[in-house]
Amino acid sequence: MGRRQQKLEEERSYNLVVRQRRETGNFFKSFLKFTFSHVGLVLLCVVIAVGGAEIFINIEIGKEEERYEDKRERAKEVNNAQEYLSSAFWWYAQEDEGYNFTQEQFTDRVESDLHEFIEFVVNATNEVNYDGQVEGWQYDWDFPNALLFTISIMTLIGYGQISPVTIVGKLFTIGYSLIAIATMLVMLANVGSALADGLIYTYSRCCCRWFRSQRINSEIPSRTLRKKLRRRLIDEVVGDEMYMPTNTIAIPIIVNVVIIFFYIFLGAMLFSMWEGWDLLSSAYFAFITLTTVGFGDLSPDKSFRGTGAVGTIIMICSVVYCSIGLAVLSLCISLIQEQISKKAARALHGKVEVVEMDRIEIIPKRMNIQGDEDAIPTDDKAGLVDAEVPMDEIDNEDDASAPIDLENENNSRPASGKLPGEPDDLFDDMPGQDDDLTPIDH
């Protein structure tokens, strides 16, 4: 009993382990399936963008605080220089022995001091972002800027408004870019495939439906007959239509161009309201962004720095517009390239197309009474197929349907009563023939 119970316990433990492994495997399969779905890839890109922004902030914030402290020190020096100049100018105007300047000397000395002060302020502005105040600092690595930075990496736009300055930040940018760009490309391919299917379906249902209706009405004018033969539009299977099927339909080039211009115009209207740009600059920014050129002369700073619920909505809309726009533009360009390739191949093949000759087969018009085609040898018949026969030779052939002169035909028979090659017992085995029939005198 003890050994049997031990075996039962071992079997239960084994089954439990197997079930746990199976459940774990099913969980990972379900997780991977969801991750690489449309929704999963979008959520994954959001997590990578937001998580990367937070990591970059933590890496670069230390250096940012040091720059803020340098700016405060330089601002204090600028204020001291300003006070020194005001005092110096006062003493220059006094008629003391040390500063008994003429008008020309006074002007030269003041101009020299002012040039040095201006140069000092300009250097402070370029080096530590001096803004005329001792306190106050516009952080480069806050969340909106960091999020815009990670999105520009993922989409390969690269506005260049900020960049990491620490060694750790630069090394992390390399590894982060490899993962983020790969994920974004997979997401764009997935979303682009869905957009392509939707675009083809919409074009087929909206634009091609009228042409199908006209084609069916011209072929079968009767409505009752169309219903009986199941040739109505409602009877067709989507994708396998008889005319302009959805599965093989091609989007015209003009439709793709219209979609691109419409999407750029939509972005121009939106960024014109959000950023305060004119319509032309907004359209220029939309095109530069969607083509991933990203010169950096214009960047959506205000769209990413909004406050409150409205600012958050504007930031989300900006991200969605840029992300979907990349998929839309690449999709339309791909469809245009496909159409141009097909047209070029069709034109190229049209130049070298060879027209085959008609296949003509000559059928013998007369046979002997046994049904053998003695008039045409077997070897010659094979050569008649696919042969090019001049029309004048065909016209000269005897017409089988021409009337036969029975009198001449009978007179042409020899005195023996049979034709050459005709067997003697041709009519002996014919049914209903009596051997003892006597000829009838005419």
From TrEMBL:
<dbReference type="InterPro" id="IPR013099">
    <property type="entry name" value="K_chnl_dom"/>
</dbReference>
<feature type="transmembrane region" description="Helical">
    <location>
        <begin position="143"/>
        <end position="162"/>
    </location>
</feature>
<keyword id="KW-0472">Membrane</keyword>
<feature type="transmembrane region" description="Helical">
    <location>
        <begin position="279"/>
        <end position="296"/>
    </location>
</feature>
<keyword id="KW-1133">Transmembrane helix</keyword>
<protein>
    <recommendedName>
        <fullName>Potassium channel domain-containing protein</fullName>
    </recommendedName>
</protein>
<feature type="transmembrane region" description="Helical">
    <location>
        <begin position="249"/>
        <end position="272"/>
    </location>
</feature>
<dbReference type="GO" id="GO:0015271">
    <property type="term" value="F:outward rectifier potassium channel activity"/>
</dbReference>
<dbReference type="GO" id="GO:0030322">
    <property type="term" value="P:stabilization of membrane potential"/>
</dbReference>
<dbReference type="GO" id="GO:0022841">
    <property type="term" value="F:potassium ion leak channel activity"/>
</dbReference>
<keyword id="KW-0406">Ion transport</keyword>
<keyword id="KW-0407">Ion channel</keyword>
<feature type="compositionally biased region" description="Acidic residues">
    <location>
        <begin position="422"/>
        <end position="442"/>
    </location>
</feature>
<feature type="domain" description="Potassium channel">
    <location>
        <begin position="259"/>
        <end position="341"/>
    </location>
</feature>
<comment type="similarity">
    <text>Belongs to the two pore domain potassium channel (TC 1.A.1.8) family.</text>
</comment>
<dbReference type="GO" id="GO:0005886">
    <property type="term" value="C:plasma membrane"/>
</dbReference>
<keyword id="KW-0812">Transmembrane</keyword>
<feature type="transmembrane region" description="Helical">
    <location>
        <begin position="308"/>
        <end position="336"/>
    </location>
</feature>
<feature type="domain" description="Potassium channel">
    <location>
        <begin position="134"/>
        <end position="195"/>
    </location>
</feature>
<feature type="transmembrane region" description="Helical">
    <location>
        <begin position="31"/>
        <end position="57"/>
    </location>
</feature>
<keyword id="KW-0813">Transport</keyword>
<dbReference type="InterPro" id="IPR003280">
    <property type="entry name" value="2pore_dom_K_chnl"/>
</dbReference>
<feature type="compositionally biased region" description="Acidic residues">
    <location>
        <begin position="390"/>
        <end position="400"/>
    </location>
</feature>
<dbReference type="Pfam" id="PF07885">
    <property type="entry name" value="Ion_trans_2"/>
</dbReference>
<feature type="region of interest" description="Disordered">
    <location>
        <begin position="390"/>
        <end position="442"/>
    </location>
</feature>
<feature type="transmembrane region" description="Helical">
    <location>
        <begin position="174"/>
        <end position="195"/>
    </location>
</feature>
